[in-house]
Amino acid sequence: MSKSKKVKIPDMTEIYKQIEQERLSKTEAVKVNAKALFDALDDTKITSIVVEFDGCGDSGQITSIDYYDHRNKDQGEPQMKVKGSFVDKHHEWDDKQKKFVEVGGGEGSVRAIVEQVCYDRLGGKHPGWEINEGSYGTFTFDTVNRKIELEFNERVESVRSTSESF
Q1: pTM for this prediction
Q2: Residue 162: inside a domain, yes or no?
Q3: What pLDDT, on a 0 to 100 scale, did the predictor assign at position 1?
Q4: How far from 135 is each of 131, 154, 157, 166, CA to CA, in Å?
Q5: Is position 6 within any domain?
Q6: DSSP string, 18-60
């Protein structure tokens, strides 16, 4: 005869508190990193950054980042660190070592901070943006007015059902 083990059921109140705390943390991180990014770009020709993202099937990614001047001319990615910023630790593929390596945990490059702001905003305000049919959209960073605009498009699967008797 086998003894059954008691399974501890998690306290949902604590889980919801943890989710809310993570959301608030991401919202605050967006503010800090966006300010640091705008400060860093003050002395550059960049007036806007356009970021496209797409997510579905339980994965999501940024598909492009473009940097423009006031004439909408591509400026290329600035090669500089953003002082006062913070990039979460994560893993990236290293071609030289042919393996994933842990990176982040400190100040980031312009690209890393742009990505961090976008992912934190999506995770904080649109959790599940990459799940199932997912979503897609565009972040537009207006560096002159220090604003970020998000165009968010959620894909929704719909079912149309009818029933007839004749």
Answers
A1: 0.83
A2: no
A3: 59
A4: 8, 4, 11, 41
A5: no
A6: HHHHHHHHHHHHHHHHHHHHHHHHTTSS--EEEEEEEEETTEE
